[in-house]
Amino acid sequence: MSFNGIKASLLAIAIIGLSSLAIAQDVAGGGMRSITVIGQGEAAGPPDRASINAGVQTLAPSVAESSEQNQAIIERIMAALKQEGIDAADIQTADYSIWPEQQHDPRGSGEITITGYRVNNTVRITVKDIDRLGKVLAAVTNAGANAIHGIGFSVKDTAALEGQARAAAMADARERAEALANLAGVKLGKVLSISTTPGGSYPMPFMGGGREMAMSASVPGISSGQLSINVQVQVSYEIR
Fold first, then answer.
1. Has domain 48-155+205-225 been given CATH number 3.10.350.10?
2. 156 and 136 in contact (C-beta within 8 Å)?
3. Is the pLDDT of residue 194 over 90?
4. d(Cα 143, Cα 208) in Å, to the nearest integer?
5. What is the pTM of this model?
6. Where along the chain do its domains lie?
7. Distance from CA of residue 187 to its chain's centroid?
8. Is residue 28's pLDDT more than 50?
9. What 3 state SS string does 130-170 have?
10. What confidence tier does 213 reach under pLDDT thresholds 50, 70, 90?
11. How far is CA 121 from the centre of its chain?
12. Which residues are bridge partners to 91 per DSSP?
């Protein structure tokens, strides 16, 4: 084959190769171009209900005696809650436990003596009228509760707050996408896909123990703060 023939063959192969590459690039880039962003939305409102863990601990020489003492106090607490308008359905046993009180021999013999038995009975109380929370706390402590393990706040129906948070998240996603599109020199088109992850962020519960603490917390009242609902959305937009 002459030199010109070889040159022509190589040129033809190069043209075919470039054509194949162009086709491959066209196929690879033939899909719809898009931009994906994550938007954050938050909405807050006052809680309308609260839950309390109120406990009674008793210590006596025998299990029977400690249990009887504990039960007597629990019955007074139940009566006080009824007087405050708390329905029986809103009172639930959260914990009931019995354990021995042990004393080690101070002489170091390793001998352990049981000096009595502790009984713990904790009830979880739902207060649906949050304005009465302070009075309910005072009632249970006056009736004999000697441990308040926590107070939590919530909203019965979070749908309205979640809706506000979703709207804020979508607006945030659109703002982020437009900012990126402007930087890239393109324009946003239609929404291609949306996914969302709802979540909640609640005030930290009031924690503590002891009758004196609970009594001081119930006068003049408990601060319920705000309930915050967070929603995250992932949105893909067509770009042109």
1. no
2. no
3. yes
4. 18
5. 0.64
6. 1-31, 48-155+205-225
7. 38
8. no
9. HHHHHHHHHHHHHCCCCEEEEEEEECCCCHHHHHHHHHHHH
10. very low
11. 27
12. 125
